Each structure stands twice: as C-alpha cells, then as structure tokens.
C-alpha cells in the first residue's frame, strides 16, 4: 500500500536496506497519520501530508510524540539570488513546511512535511495542538512570509518593525554580496616549493 | 581669654577633626573591602596602583570620580536629586558626634548619647527615598521604595537591641556606657575582671544589632534596594561622579560608625584590660570597630541577598520579638540582681 | 488662544478636579532589558508589574539576530563549521558536532574511532565549561559574587586543555568533515606534520578532572548548602514535567523536572554507549533542582572524560575525503545533547559546495517559550533568578 517515494530527494538511501533491516519507522508513522508518502533516508524519517490535513496529522501523532522539536520551511526554487542553485533537474517551485515531532523516552521521531504553492502561502496554525509551535511559526512567518491561520500572537519575532521583505526566501538577495563580490580565493593554487604533497587526502574541504 | 575657651570654636574644631578622621578611616575601609574581598576570592585585588600593594587605588578612584561629568537625567527632579546625597552624608556625620575615642576625646558627650545617634542616623532613610523617587527611573523607584520599607522595618530591632544595653548600663551617654562596662564584675585575687556587655548577657542584643546595622547600611545580604543584578544599582542607578562618591563614602563611613557604636555598646569601647584608656583608647576602639567592619565585609562577599519579603519577615517575625524578649530578660535581671 | 478669563476658569477646574480625583493605581510597564546585567545578553522582557509582582511578561528578541540560516546558504561546509561555534558561544565545540555529523551522513563517510573519541572528550569538556559558567552566573544573580571566582578558576584548567588540543579556547573550529583537524604547526616550507594530541594531555586531563570534582564539592557546599540560596531557589519557578514537555524544554531544564531523557543515551552521533554515566534527573523542577542537575552533570562529564582518556584508541584523525567537499543531494537531521539542550541541524543539500538550506534548532530559543507561563505571578527578584536558572544565551536564541 505504501511505496517508498522520497519527497524531493531522488538519491536512494546509502544504507541500502537489507532483509535484516527492521520495518521502517516512517511507515509506522505514515500509517498512523493516514498518509501514503513516506521515506527513511539518511536515518531521517519523513512523512508527507496534504495541506488540508496538516493539523489533523499532528493531532493524530500528538499522544505518541508529545515533543514539538521545530517547524521550518524550505523554499524550493530553481533560481536563487544567493548561494548555489539545486543541481540536477528543475524542481517544482513551492514552499515546503516541515515540522519535527519526537518523544521523550525512546528517541522516536518523525518529520512531517507539506507543500504550499508559491502563490498561496497560508496554512493552519498548530498552536491549538502543540503549544511549543508558537514561536517557530512566528519565525517562519517572519522569515518566509507564510501566514498561519489561527495563530494566537502573530507578531514579528526577529526582525524589526519596519523591515520589508522576507529574508530566508531564495529570491531575497544579500546586499553586501551584490556590492562587493566574495574576495576569498576559490581555487587553491599549489605551493611553489612543496614537493612532497603535504598531507595528501588528509586535508578536506576548501 | 584665648581662642580655645570659646565654646563654639572648640566645637567647630572637634567636629572638623571628627569628620576628617571619619573620612580617612572610610578610605581605609574602602581599601580593606577591595583587598579583603580579593583574597577571599583567590585574587590579589589592587596591585599596581601604589607599589605592588595597591594602597593608592583608593585615591585613584576618588580622583576618577571627581573628574566625571555631572549628569542629571532630563526627567529627574533636579533639586531633590542634588540634595539626596548630602542628606545621606548628614545622617552619617551626625552619628560620629557621640563616638568616644577615649574618656575625653569625644566631640560631644551628650547625656542622651545613643538616643541622639539613633534618631539622627535615621535621617538617611529619607535620603534614600529622595534618591529613588527623584531619579525619574522605574528601577530607581523600585529600589527607593524597597529601601524605605527595609529601613523602617529594621530601625525597630536596632533600637530595641540598644535598649537592653541602656537598661544594663543605667545611662544613655556613650562614655557612661563604656565606664559601666569597665567596672569589674568579679575579682580574682586583687585583679578585677570586667566583661563587655556582649559577654555579660547581651549577646542576643549584639547579634540583633549587627544584623539590623547591616540592613540599615543596605549591605548584602540586605541590599535589595540596590540589588545590582536586578535593579542595576536601584536608587543609585542615575548617580555618577561626585554624587555617587558621596553615597559611597557615606556607606563606608556608616559601616565604620555602626561598628564603632557596636564596639562601644557591646564590646567595651575604648577600654581594654591593662591598657591606659587615655593613651591607648582611640587605638582600642578603632581596632574593635575594624574587626566588626571585617566581619561585615566577610558577610557581604559570602552570602547572596535575601528577597524583600524574606527580609521583612526576618525583621518583623524574628528580630523584633527576640529583641523584646531580650529587653524583658535584661530588665528582670537588672532588678533582681 | 486662551484669554485670561479662560485661563482662570481652567485653573479653577483643575484645582477642583485635583481635589475630587480618586487615588488610582495602575500596573507599571517595566522593560527588563535589553541592556540589563542579568538577561544573559540582549533579551528584552516587557513586564507588567503591580508593585513587585509580575502580572505578565512578553519576551522580545531579535536584537542579536545574525542571520545564520541565510549565511549558511552562502558559505561552504568548512566555513559554516567555523561560524557555527558562535551560536551558543559558551559551548563552542558542541555546536559543530551535529552539523558535521549531518554532513558526514549525507556524504556517507564516518569519522575514525580516534576522531570520535576526541570529539567526545572535547564535547564533554565544553559541557563542564558551560556548567561552570552557569554556576558562576547563577549565584551572582542571586547576589553572591564569590562562587564566580571559584568556578572560573577551575574552568581555566579545562580551557587550557582545550587550547592545547585545538588552539582555541572558546571557538575551536576543530571539526572537519570526516574527523577532526589533523594538521597543526609547520610553516609553508616544511612538510606539514600530522599533529595529534599534545604531549601530556592525558595526564593533564586526569589532574584537571580531579580539580573539577573538588570544585564541584566546594560549590555544592558554598552555593547549594547556603540557607539563603535555598530560601531563594527552592519552590521558585516550578516547572512540572508535563508542562516541560508541552513547551518543548530540553536538556538540564527537562531533566530537572523529572523527565529522564538524555540524547546522549538515545542518539548515536558520538560513541557514548561505550561509557558508563548516569542521566541526572531531579524531581521538583524548581530553580534549586536545575542548579543541582547541572552540578551533578559536571561530575558525570568528568567521569566520561576519565573513561575516554583511559581507552583512547589509536588510528587516523580523519578519513579520506576529497579536497573540495561537495555533499550529494539529500536531507538529513541530526540532533545532539548540547549543554543547554537539544541542538540539531537539518541540512538540505542541493548537491553543491554550499548547502541549499540549513535549519538550526537551537536549545535556548525553544527553552524560552515557557517564559510567559513561568514568570506569571512571580516577584521581580524571582524573575531574575528564574531567568538565570534556565541557562540560555542570546546567541542561541537569536541565531
């Protein structure tokens, strides 16, 4: 009934499940929520729900996973004002709202996710189900411009009153980088006198 | 008739000397606080200012304060703001009039000595309220009101603790109290042994007096009105420069004055067994006062502060009944014995 | 324009009004912060107080928002490792760990044993450092300035050890993808030597842990045994267990309320399962218990470190990774037991040298959500004491 369809990450799980792997926890949570899309990649369980069933899904999981870890947003976009764009095929442009629930005994956890179309960034607030979702939703509203319907205190949390724009969106530029490009050297030129290949393979990263 | 026969000149000279001595000793107390607190905290304290010992630190700080800008906040009540530190100092200096350094070295040996000291010393309560209200700052207001409540609450145990000594000595004059403690209680052979009142049954009174004195001086553990970590210096928040120095010196001079009064009342004053009171009296008294000052500094750096309601309940529910019981017992014993 | 007759009339009215007005009282709005000695940074609490009692509190933050999540989109993984130290600046190294482990999981590499042990030792040392800072600032907020000096003295020993290993005291930037920083010293003309732990590190660690245990006993007597501290903290700021879970508290705050949940036992980002230590839990959830939990945790961390240096395995310090790190596409969330609570990074990688999105779950931000509930009805001195006992820093809150 449920097929392992990773949401937006086409890379298969590097830890290839074998016959001895226990049944996927994501499948367990997906069954509780009534969703058909789930994935267990990179040891992170993720269950997708449609937008209309967002609050209902959380309500279903609340007795099992009472700890609301965080809520955040991923702005999937093919053109980015700063940073590296996504490699590979273009993705559907949307805002993905993700929230993580966990418990305080065995370490069970799941990430619930839903998609918002870019022209309609509204979603129901979780403040009625999880008290601890309050500030996370305010931050998401501040940073991404998402409207949480029914939030008890929709006041800006981080940015000052007169701030215009939503900084964490991919279309928001970093002005300092527009004025002055990044001055650091991107390509590492080899040292002129070093013959013995200093620590080959031991140094990582640029 | 020489100048020294004029009673007003003599009084002026005595008062001037007393103020100067008190100021000088207040600086010593300030230095003691810096060094003693440092050694209690595994530090060295002032080190560079003054030949690897730091004695000049106090003068450096005094000069630093003197050259600061004179700031009065715009919303402050300027006349009251300016007057408050002077009233506070007035309260402290009024007390030193009756402290006897020796049987003759006293600015004015009033018959109502200790009564006058307690009455005049409570003038600084008003000063703190003035400072708190006139600063135009909510934190100062909270600090000032806390100060008012605290000082009023602890006046009572202070006074009641002294009443026990007065009953036992039979006089309110400070020199009289010291002489009463110098009377030998019993004789071993031909040597008369006299005991200070702290060992003669006024030990509860002594403890109550020291606790109430700490509260009157607004020192930790009773420094809710200042409460550095909560109220950013409470009623002292807006004070800087010379005005702050006046409050600071007032605090150290007050410590010394309260300790001196406690030594006279409970520890025997300028009298020490075997020492001539006229020559050694001042050193004995100042020595005893400095020991009590050391104990005050010790308490300040060891304990946290009591919350306002805990402070009030300590005063009203514990100290006042204990002091009243002390008076009752003392009076009974005085009549019986 | 008022005529003299008008002004006279106004003055009459005003004096009548002054006589007939009732004495009204209203609650005072007091700004605790953003500049305040005890708010651990630039936190602003807009408190409505009636006398000394707080009616309601509204936290306002963002004074220190540095835009970490946006920065992470324009920095490479190594650069982010350097930045991330500064989120919770008291426990620098512990902030790097979940980020590095998440990146390693996405790349499919695992750090060698020796590197993981060194990471564990350094994380526990930073935990000791963080809790000693707590033990110096919490009594200072109650008004006792001396434990500060005692705690910081012993913290210097731990910081010296950390400096010997990593070169930095507060923000070591010591993790690399695949292990820990292997090379140190050597100029450009010498062959770079792989430099391991400094000589005398293990012996020095053992001595330092003895000293740390000694100061724990001292502080237990000086701070927790003091009657005034007990009067100021027992029964104040009680957070019941169900409320703690409801408001997503984590770390020592959760364990002080009686919930025995420690991510070091549950997650496997570092080899904690090889070592023997207790999860410190206290029943009441008041300020005193929060202080006690952290004091006990210092002892447990010393225990872990002693076991770890006794069983330090040999081997390389970093697995072989390409020179230019490109993390394949994927999403991964790793959480760790930061000294302040649960800290986690959700890395969304687009396949490039820089992440596509990094969500930072910081402990103090989530711990502070309980403030309006916890501070209602408290006295002002208790507000300061409760803030101190929650042990947060604004870098963690504002990111």
Would you mind describing this structure in some detail?
The complex is a heterotrimer of chains A (206), B (337) and C (399). Chain A is of the alpha/beta class and 206 residues long. In chain A, 16% of the residues lie in helices and 22% in strands. Chain A is built from four helices and eight strands, in the order βαββαββββαβα. The model of chain A is unreliable at 1-21 and 194-206 (pLDDT under 50). Chain B contains twelve helices and two strands. Chain B has a two-stranded antiparallel sheet. Chain B is globular. Chain C has a single domain, classed as Cytochrome-c3 Hydrogenase, chain B (Orthogonal Bundle). Helix content of chain C is 48%, strand content 12%. Chain C has helices spanning 4-20, 68-71, 77-84, 92-107, 113-142, 146-166, 201-224, 227-233, 241-246, 252-256, 263-266, 287-310, 363-367, 371-375, 380-390, 394-398, and strands at residues 28-32, 44-50, 53-60, 175-176, 179-180, 330-338, 341-349, 357-361. In chain C, the strands form three sheets. Chain C has a three-stranded antiparallel beta sheet. Chains in contact: A-C, B-C. Chain B binds chain C through residues 40-43, 138-139, 142, 220-221, 223-224, 227-230, 232, 301-310, and chain C through 28, 30, 36-38, 52, 139-146, 148-150, 153, 226, 228-229, 231-232, 379-382, 384.
Layout of helices and strands:
The complex is a heterotrimer of chains A (206), B (337) and C (399).
Chain A: E1 3-4, H1 25-33, E2 37-41, E3 44-48, H2 54-61, E4 67-76, E5 94-102, E6 109-116, E7 122-124, H3 134-144, E8 147-149, H4 175-179
Parallel strand pairs in A: 1-2, 3-6, 7-8
Antiparallel strand pairs in A: 2-3, 4-5, 5-6
Chain B: H1 7-40, H2 57-66, H3 78-95, H4 113-121, H5 123-134, H6 138-169, H7 174-182, E1 186-188, E2 191-193, H8 203-216, H9 228-231, H10 242-266, H11 277-302, H12 308-336
Antiparallel strand pairs in B: 1-2
Chain C: H1 4-20, E1 28-32, E2 44-50, E3 53-60, H2 68-71, H3 77-84, H4 92-107, H5 113-142, H6 146-166, E4 175-176, E5 179-180, H7 201-224, H8 227-233, H9 241-246, H10 252-256, H11 263-266, H12 287-310, E6 330-338, E7 341-349, E8 357-361, H13 363-367, H14 371-375, H15 380-390, H16 394-398
Antiparallel strand pairs in C: 1-2, 2-3, 4-5, 6-7, 7-8
